Amino acid sequence: MSNIKRNRKRYSKEFTFRPRRFALNRKKIVREIFNWFLLILIAAITGYAIVTFLFQTVTVVGPSMGNTLKDGEVVIVNKITYKFNDIERYDIIAYSEVDKKSYYDIKRVIGLPEETVQIVDGYIYINGAKLEDLPFDDYILSSGNAKEEIVLGDNEYFVIGDNVNNSEDSRYTNVGNISKSEILGKVVYIYSPEESRGKIE
């Protein structure tokens, strides 16, 4: 009789602890799921903030920036730098024309606000002075609209592709001068392909 009582006690203890253990495990699983969900949410918000306010990738389309940038390369654009710094001559920028918001073009800044730009006999003149330190050395075959002096407005920039003889840029009416509001940011880094990866000087 005493053996039966002992066995009943033992079984009752076992049955008492199992549901509690299951409840604890369930709470742990729920907590783990919540933690993972929180991490994913934070990562998504952080990623959105980076793309929206700090950096963005843009794909190079066409040969106009060769040999500096090649068709199909993916570059990183610093979107915040011009909030604190001025756009400088020879910066490479990504910009979107007002009627082409879904497409970003990439060119090099040549003329700054309130300057005059003219291309004569294959050379660029800023405020009547010939530019001697251009990052490209091709003789410019087509002056386009810059055959006559172009006067830039208060927030306007004159841009050219490094592949000057195969580039649609500010020399032509369909592009024209670029306003500051159209500029996404400064192109700072080649992200892909991996063999081209590196900072843009």
**Oligomeric state of the chains present here:** single chain
Determine the strand fraction and express it as a percent band: 25-35%
* Secondary structure category: alpha+beta
Total of DSSP H or I helical runs spanning 4+ residues: 2
Largest sheet: 8 strands, antiparallel
Shape: elongated
Question: Got a strand count?
Answer: 12
Radius of gyration: 31 Å
SSE sequence, one letter per element: HEEHEEEEEEEEEE
Low-confidence regions: none
Percent of residues in helices comes to 25-40%
The span between the termini is 92 Å
Average per-residue pLDDT, rounded, comes to 85
Q: What report would you give on this structure?
A:
This protein is of the alpha+beta class. It has helices at 2-54, 81-84, and strands spanning 55-59, 74-78, 92-95, 105-111, 116-120, 123-126, 129-130, 150-151, 156-160, 178-179, 183-192, 198-199. The strands form 2 sheets. Strands 1, 2, 3, 4, 9, 10, 11 and 12 form an 8-stranded antiparallel β-sheet that branches. A 4-stranded antiparallel β-sheet has the order 7-6-5-8, with no helix packed on it. The mean pLDDT is 85.
